[in-house]
Amino acid sequence: MTEPALDALFEAAAAVRGRAHAPYSGFAVGAALTDEDGRIHAGCNVENAAYPVGTCAEAGAIAAMIATGGRRIRAILVLAESPAPVTPCGACRQRIREFAGPDTPILSAGPDGIRARFTLEELLPASFGPEHVVHGA
Q1: End-to-end CA distance of the chain
Q2: Could you tell me the sign of the dihedral formed by the alpha carbons of 96, 98, 102, 103, in that order?
Q3: What is the pLDDT of residues 36-48, one digit of tens each?
Q4: 93 and 73 in contact (C-beta within 8 Å)?
Q5: Position 40 in a domain
Q6: CATH assignment of the domain containing 90
């Protein structure tokens, strides 16, 4: 990914993170992804008093992509303030897998910038994906 593309993902995640609804945990997360057409889609976590009804930032970004016609994740950046790099939770790793391949970059960022880079395969090895589903069997 080019530096301008990384900067655009970071800026989108930072902007949406500021709109997160995290009154219970205080842990605001923003995520931004690029789709197959280079468009950026962002989402933030939305907590709910009836835990675990809330939504992760990555799920919000994926829903935004699908709502506008995107179908493939080229890269995703997750931004949160934490002493250690924050990666998608297990459920979101599987959500990402539905729309991404094993080499898809997943970037962990804090307010100071990108802290770590992974591939989906590194975070979700030997994963189950759409190609495993047999229709009409």
Answers
A1: 40
A2: negative
A3: 999 999 999 999 9
A4: no
A5: yes
A6: 3.40.140.10
Determine which one of 3, 11, 36, 58 is catalytic. Answer: 58
Half-sphere exposure (Cβ direction) of 117: Cα atoms closer than 13 Å: 8
State pLDDT tens for residues 5-32: 999 999 999 999 999 999 999 999 999 9
Instruction: Based on the residue annotation, tell me whether 11 is a catalytic residue of this protein.
Output: no
pTM for the model stands at 0.94
What is residue 25's DSSP assignment? Answer: T
Domain that holds residue 93: 3-132
Strand partners, 117: 107
CB distance 108 to 118 below 8 Å:
yes
Tell me how many domains the chain contains: 1
Cα–Cα distance, 110 to 55 (Å, whole number): 20
